[in-house]
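Minutes, methods subgroup
Present: GH (chair), OT, SY

1. OT presented the first of two proteins processed in the latest run. Sequence and structure tokens recorded below as shown on screen.
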Amino acid sequence: MNQPLKQTVKPATYMSAANPDFPGYDVLRVLFAGESQTSPSHRLGPKIYDFYLFHYIEEGSGVFRTEKGTYRLRSGSGFMIEPDHLVSYESDPETPWRYRWLAFSGAGAKELAREAGFSQDTPVVHGSSYGPIPEALGSILAAFREQQEGAGLAALGYLYLIMAEAKRSLVSGTANTEGEAHIQRVVKQMIHYMTSQYAYPISIEEMCSGLGYNRAYLSRVFKKGTGMSPVTYLLKLRIDKARYLLRDRPDLSIEQIAASVGLTDPLYFSRQFKRFYGEAPSTYRRSVTRG
């Protein structure tokens, strides 16, 4: 009778390196980074840390425990440990995990973790073991071990990349595309895009393409969130900006003002201005600059 093949457990390894730069205790900084192939049932804790500590699992599986929950994790998962909270984590006895990690602290550390979507209620992210997160963690470790010039600054860049990728994974894993929070987020993205781009002759189609949504969906959620269509909102934004220029920049012609708010046709600009405010741009200018 054939015996089942026994899985080979890889030998345990450990490597860590500290940030060779020291910008100060109050500055956001990556403290150290590392990687390890753990031994079966390798356990840390229960214990607390005084910094943020993020692990990302490349292979194997294990359990992460916090004061609020227990999470069984495997390749492609990451977990965030927050300062002053009791945690423990243990690799599986048969498929011990191999993970990479980094620690960070300083001004804005908590805000960065929250911006990425991590909290005591959401300490875990699920992604890909071959994505940008493990690569970034490996790059930080290499820069620290080699004591590269500017390693601390490079580590900060990688930290933001890691948190951005974690945020994408958390949002895609939990977002309800019809939920109120998601709609508000999309509307804010659209308003920010219009506010920064109104001076250019952008179209709604270009905006939808830039944000990665189809026009029908964006129009629907935007109207639900603001009460007006994206076309109307963008046009009103341009006309309101033009009112400011008509009042405060008498040296500019009507044509120059129209071009400055992304409307290249002065006649169209005049018609739309009258539509919103009941008078021609030239009439409005005379009324606000008298005296």
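2. SY then presented the second protein from the same run.
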Amino acid sequence: MRSLIVLARLLDYPTRALQQAAPEMTAVIKEETRLSPLRRETLVGWIRRIAQGDLLDLQAEYVALFDKGRSTSLLLFEHVHGESRDRGQAMVDLLAQYREAGFELDARELPDYLPLFLEFLSTREEAEIAGQLGEIAHILARLTARLEEREADQALATATLLALIGAEDEITEHQDKVRQEKRDDTPAALDAVWEEEAVRFSATSDQDCAVQSAAGQRRAQQRQNEREQVSPVRMMDAASDRCH
């Protein structure tokens, strides 16, 4: 399902290659009959804003949204396990699932990183896609409500994932709770996090899952993209390249 690759790209760190891939992404979304005409039009509008936007501004907005605080994290297991040791085992299990399916994981990426997970799903059958998205629907709904509260375009992507499985109504169940949450991206909240003792995974988990911060991964990816000119076609076919 190529639309999942587009959604993965839209949720990832903005790059020049992403802007250049706008025409191809637009074409994929326009052909996605599983989505309503209004939702397709809304997504195309977002893609257009990315293509026409200032790249540095897009990157700064992305970092402010996803690298400050945990409530909008794109690391799925962080919403379930936080930084506990259980998250390490969950990532090991997910990594094993990827490998069993022949999906090659880049060492820079965590297994539970949502864009990566969507790339994996894009290689699976529709029934499995629906089942896997259904298992994380509660995470997607809460994340969507939080992104909507911050008026972030990325809420369009997570809401679309729920729409694909007919679970978009779940968002409303989380909106009131989200409005009552204290922001975790304020200077005071961030200072409090830094004062907490860091939880360490086991050495085996660190090695197998390449545990590192999402911000660090994106910085590494940005440097890599600057060294290599990634074509829009290769960008859209990344999932196919991973799966052997």
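Chair's summary of item 2: The mean pLDDT is 79.
Next meeting: continue with the remaining queue.
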